[in-house]
Amino acid sequence: MPTTRRQFLSLAGVTVIPIVTLRPVEATPAMLDSAIRNIIGEAPIRAGKVKLDIPPLVENGNTVPMTVSVTSPMTADDYVKSIHVFNEKNPQPNIGTFYLSPSCGRAQISTRIRLADTQKVVAIARLSDDSFWQVTADVVVTLAACTEEVN
Asked: Which of 30, 43, 47, 119 could hold 89 in an S-S bridge, CB 3.0 to 4.6 Å?
């Protein structure tokens, strides 16, 4: 005997599995450290040579202007290989990786990023001698980005 729609719905009502919406796990400083170590390994990081221009206070975290520049002559023997930008509280701690060569002329990148909340932003430069240099900046965000409301 075929099952009627009414019988099916009454059965389905008994065995309904609720749908759960999961939010991404909140980022932690340990996740930031892990993301940095994935890029640089156990190499030491020095302070200096890198400049991070980012507003210390932003009204909206959806579009935050940022410029990273590195003091380097950008010659064939002495240049910046890459610039890595990280954040502390976004769901993904690695904002971006930018590869450079001596033909770039100067070691500078500019972009806009999203910030989920008030947090620390870290920029690390890898030079041609495989040394790593970093700078950090604290950014206060009044209206967070990178979040979605759960209904």
From this structure: 119
